[in-house]
Amino acid sequence: MAERGKPAGSDACSGRFALWRGRKFPKFPGRFPRRKTAPARRLALLALALWSVGAAHDGFDRFIDATEIPSLIRATSPEVRDRNGTLLRAYTIDNGRWRMALSPDQVDPLFYRMLVAYEDRRFYDHAGVDPVATLRALAQAVRHGRIVSGSSTLTMQVARLLEDGTTGQWQGKLRQMRLALALERRLSKDEILALYLGLAPYGGNVEGLRAAALIWLGKEPTRLTPAEAALLVALPQAPESRRPDRHPEAARLARNRVLVRMAEAGVIPMSAARSDALDPAPLGRQPMPQLAPHMADRALAIGPGRHDLTLDARLQRSLEDLVRRHRRGLDPRLSLAIVVAAHQSGEILAAIGSPDYTDTRGQGFVDMTQALRSPGSTLKPLVYGLAFDRGLAHPETLILDTPVQYGRYAPQNFDGLYRGELPVRQALQLSLNIPVVRLTEALGPAHLMAALDGAGVEAVVQGGAPGLALALGGVGVSLEEMVQLYAALARGGDPVALRWHSGTQPARGTRRILSPASAWQVGNILAGLVPPPSAGPPGRVAYKTGTSYGHRDAWALGWDGRHVAGVWIGRPDGTPVPGAFGGALAAPLLFEALGRAAPRLTPLPPPPPETLITSRARLPEGLQRFGPREPVPALQVTFPPEGARLEVSGGAGIPVKLRGGRPPYTLLKDGAVVATGLRRAEFTAPLSGIGFTTLSVIDAEGHSGRVSVELR
Predict the structure, then answer these.
(1) Cα(153)–Cα(196) distance, rounded to whole angstroms?
(2) pLDDT at position 150, please?
(3) If DSSP codes are grouped into helix, strand and coil, which group holds residue 60?
(4) Are residues 233 and 258 in contact, defined by beta-carbon separation less than 8 angstroms?
(5) Helix (H) / strand (E) containing 485
(6) Stretches in the chain below the pLDDT threshold 70
(7) Which SUPFAM superfamilies match (predicted)?
């Protein structure tokens, strides 16, 4: 028990305080003094604070790094471009939207400056979220009780576009901030800008800067005026309420606000802002380029993405306009097709498959550059070239144009006339059928088919093996293949596979089909043809026309020293076109197409050194005439028959038919001349009177035939 006057437990503590006996403690007024914190403790607290901050930072980093980023690769519209990169045609993506691929060098630098200055002037300084703009937006929202200004950076807008999220909810904002911070860690600023330019909405089904520039401005964004750049900056803020096609005034006002802000920020001069503000805003959508639709469809069939063709957009546009103009006034069921190529490289520079791709009555959707049609007389130059090569004929060789029959096949000339013996040069220029059939019979149709195959032409023959009618168009070929064949003639008999796509294309193998001398002789003969009216003097273009059986196809093909071209006119369904002739319909288009391919026609090449250029009299005896000398048949009047009674009332005359002889013919009645200069073997005799009459016909060599008839 404790002693009185001593506190309990004092004995236990006495030993502890014994050490302090005799020491003096400082006196503190009013309260017990607080001991000072040791330096070590302060350092510990600081370390703890730093560790906490670091741990929080590391946790935040892990939080941001764990952000799942949506796919950055988005589908873009397939594009078809010409040899210079000009857009020929584009297609919408699967959801019907226009979203065009865009590279940074395709954008006017002025647009970049205006976009950053207007949308996010601290874009290059922040890490995806602008704290200054965020605090300002929060303060204004608290003060006004609603959102007054936005705080979205360009990176946050990209985040929203990638997630297809909303803009008005704070939850969405927080999610966009997280994704924006993650994007900034994984992408460069330029890559983020590229995403924005590719995904920003511009109203309707238009996404991305390039599609917007093409549809709202009708141009690429490479060069923009301040007004154009300002419009493209303003539209994504409210793409539907500022659509130029529906709300042109709202688009204009929004554009002008951007112009004023840019002038105040020093991006553009104030004078430029004032003058451009007076420009009217676009009032509607501009049509996307639709050049070479058939060729673009062929490219798209290869696969999606970008396709660079060998076409020249300038020439393609010019020839499409030419074909549409030429079509006016013609049968609406008619179609026209043109192919123009550079025959040295084989590159197709223009290809028109029909006058109007959307025309259903004329079946404009059918690409007539690829359709199989009868080429008419346009294969004749190849037959003559093969005959020259094999020593069967020379341009000055004489050949017979007289009736001939091979089994049941008896060819006739298109006009029904016979010229007798004439030079091969003239036979080709007149496009006579009988001489070329004679040559084909000597060559063999199989050799002609082999030459077509060597030129890369996949000729289709109906009904088994090819016959002599092959030389007159009895085969199916396409316009593009015929242009390839004529390119071989232009190249001295050395074929070239026509190319239309800059990428690798499977092409049929080609081999030389004619010697340079024979090919030149064919071209020299064709260059001597009289060109269509207003096409200039002869000798500048080697060309050949053709008309298929039944007037179903009208053709013209030819070349100068640089280009080769082909024209086809007809109905896609193959029905006849009465009165259609290659010389009248297709030849003028051919010359105009070649004239538009270059400022001036390139001269045809000179003859190769080995070319035999001489008169017929100086030719070897075997080349002076083709085949054995055949006697000219005696002239006969086959109708009317001897003793016939004929009605001549009404002055209509009577029909007369001849066999054999050589035109021109002279007709006599009872010894008196009735008509002269008759060149057809069938004609109508202008006879009158009644009674017994003797009709006589005399040919160019004095042969005669006569019949006696009774006129009633």
Answers:
(1) 11
(2) 56
(3) helix
(4) yes
(5) helix 479-490
(6) 1-38, 40-58, 60, 133-151, 165-172, 504-509, 628-633, 649-651
(7) beta-lactamase/transpeptidase-like, Lysozyme-like
User: Is the separation of the CB atoms in 273 and 262 below 8 Å?
Assistant: yes
Question: Which position among 79, 119, 396, 481 bears the catalytic label?
Answer: 119
Domain boundary among 253, 276, 299: 276
Do 420 and 502 lie in a common domain? yes
CA angle 205-367-292, nearest 5°?
45
pLDDT for the residue numbered 148: 44
Q: Phi-psi bin for 551: left (phi > 0), alpha (psi -120 to 50), beta?
A: left
Structural domain contains residue 435 = yes
What gap in Å lies between CA 294 and CA 355, rounded to an integer? 11
- In a shared domain, residues 547 and 399: yes
Is 377 marked active-site? yes
Return the pLDDT at 29: 43
Q: Is the dihedral of CA 294, 295, 296, 300 positive or negative?
A: positive
Q: Give yes or no: 119 in active site.
A: yes
Same domain, 696 and 598: no
Q: Rounded to an integer, what distance in angstroms lies between the CA atom of residue 262 and that of residue 259? A: 5
The C-alpha atoms of residue 148 and residue 382 are separated, in whole angstroms, by 81
* Residue 566: count of CB within 10 angstroms of its CB: 32
Cα–Cα dist 315/565, whole Å: 13
* φ, ψ of residue 277 in degrees (nearest 5): -65, -20
Alpha-carbon distance of 207 to 241, in angstroms, equals 15
The pLDDT of residue 557 is: 98
Task: Give the DSSP H or E segment for 443.
Answer: helix 433-443
Tokens 């970008």 belong to: 306
Alpha-carbon distance of 129 to 149, in angstroms, equals 15
Count of residues in the chain = 712
Tell me the backbone φ, ψ of residue 337, rounded to 5 degrees.
Answer: -145, 145
For residues 614 and 653, membership in a common domain is answered with no
Per DSSP, the three-state class of 297 is: helix
Provide the domain count of the chain: 3
pLDDT for 508: 58
Task: Provide the domain limits for residue 568.
Answer: 376-624
Does residue 687 sit in helix, strand or coil? coil
Same domain assignment for residues 516 and 564 = yes
Instruction: Map tokens 């319909």 to a residue.
Output: 585
pLDDT recorded at residue 651: 67
First to last CA, the chain: 181
| Residue range 694-706, pLDDT digits in tens | 888 988 888 888 8
Q: Which residue has the tokens 């035939």?
A: 705
The pLDDT assigned to 18 comes to: 37
pTM of the entire predicted model = 0.78
Give the C-alpha distances (Å, rounded to integers) separating 116 from 53, 122, 139, 159: 33, 8, 24, 17
How far apart are alpha carbons 512 and 502 in whole angstroms?
Answer: 24
Question: CB atoms < 10 A from the CB of 510, how many?
Answer: 19
The pLDDT assigned to 128 comes to 82
147: exposed, middle or buried (Cβ count in 10 Å: 0-12, 13-18, 19+): middle
Determine phi and psi for 519, rounding to 5 degrees.
-65, -40
Cis amide prior to 280 (ω within 30 degrees) = no
Nearest-angstrom CA–CA distance, 643 and 338 = 57
- Same domain for 487 and 599? yes
In a domain, 651, yes or no: yes
Q: Decide: helix, strand or coil at residue 310.
A: coil
Is 403 among the domain residues?
A: yes
Q: How far apart are CA 491 and CA 385, in angstroms?
A: 13
Q: E strands within 319-388? A: 335-342, 347-352
| 612 and 652 belong to one structural domain | no
Domain boundary among 234, 249, 276: 276
Which stretches of 66-153 are DSSP H helices?
109-119, 131-144
Amino acid at 184: E
